[in-house]
Amino acid sequence: MDLDDLRASLNEDAPPADLTPPLLALWLAATGEWNAAHDCAQSQKDSIGARIHAYLHRVEGDLANARYWYDRADVTPFEGSLAEEWEALTREFLPGVSRVNGQKN
User: Fold this and answer.
1) For residues 61 and 67, what is the distance between their CA atoms, to the nearest angstrom?
2) CA 63, 68, 70: angle at the middle one, nearest 5?
3) Where do the structural domains in the chain lie, given as residue ranges?
């Protein structure tokens, strides 16, 4: 699956079955299912879940809470638009990107 495939799936009634938890949270967020996306991100107890959690609190407009989650993820808060952050996160978590300790190679 690539970014175009994921975007196309946003018109479907259900997410693709093979989405990883981070991509599922992003899919749910993009389809307006904030609470389900939040539950998905909150269930992932690592820096990836924290990054998506931060994004979701930006979507919600709770910037103080978003900053808390960026700190938990040990990343600089995203300064672009919500659409740009969604795309950046989606690209990062799509299959085929190798990582060492959460960093792209």
Assistant:
1) 11
2) 90
3) 3-9+20-96
